[in-house]
Amino acid sequence: MQWTVGKIGAAAGVAFLVLNVIANALPGSPPGTDDSGAKIASFFAHHHRAVVIGAILTGLAAPLFLELVTALALRLRVAGEGTAAAAVFAFGTVALALGIVSDALYVSLARIGADGNTSLAKGVYELDGFIAAKSFWFAAAAAVVAGWAARRVLVQWYAAISLAAAVVLAVGGASLRFNGFFAPLGAMSGIAFLALLVWTLATCAFV
Question: What's CA 152's distance to the chain center, in Å?
Fold first, then answer.
């Protein structure tokens, strides 16, 4: 079997998905950003090893997502959608960069929680939530452009999945309430992350 750019990108995307699912499952259900600093610090202190291992897995996954985005951009370019290809690559890269920053803040809480610095733990956790929300906006932009370009080159199923995922991601990015379902890193953020994984899987099949 010849390993084309598309097949390599698809394999990287599947590996990205698997690593992220494992990494996010390891620590269990995280606290909310509206929880007390003591509760947040306690969670990360008691799940120190799981959080660190998860960060290693997501660190391995990050360049795999970039490989998938590259394959998607090349697929669109070959289909005659050069502008869309450039936009998808740009939006996808920024989304990934923000995700990496969010991930770095998250794993830093393992040390902060162990030190018992409750006020710093709460501040860093809230900042992590806001950066994660920003990453959803750029992921939504990438999905919109990819979906619109796919619609123009008659790949209707991928267009539908991409546009639906973009809506969910955008709502996740706008989830900035102080508490509840639409708080940063709340339930809506989790749903948006699932939408990203679904879009990733669909992109693996498309490229």
Answer: 26
Q: What are phi and psi of 119, to 5 degrees?
A: -70, -40
Distance CA(79)–CA(149), nearest Å, equals: 9
- Which residue spans within 19-178 are E strands per DSSP? none
Distance CA 48, CA 104 (A): 14
d(CA 129, CA 148): 29
What confidence tens digit (pLDDT) does each residue in 89-126 have? 999 999 999 999 999 999 999 999 988 899 999 999 99
* Of 199, 46, 59, 31, residue with least CA distance to 128: 31
Q: Render pLDDT for 133-179 as a digit per residue (tens, 0 to 9).
A: 999 999 999 999 999 999 888 789 999 999 999 999 999 999 988 88
With vertex at residue 94, the alpha carbon angle to CA 198 and CA 201, rounded to the nearest 5 degrees, is 15
| 129 closest CA partner among 105, 94, 163, 165 | 105
Q: Answer left, alpha or beta for residue 155, where phi above 0 means left and psi between -120 and 50 means alpha.
A: beta
User: What does the alpha-carbon distance between residue 185 and residue 42 come to, in Å, rounded to a whole number?
Assistant: 17
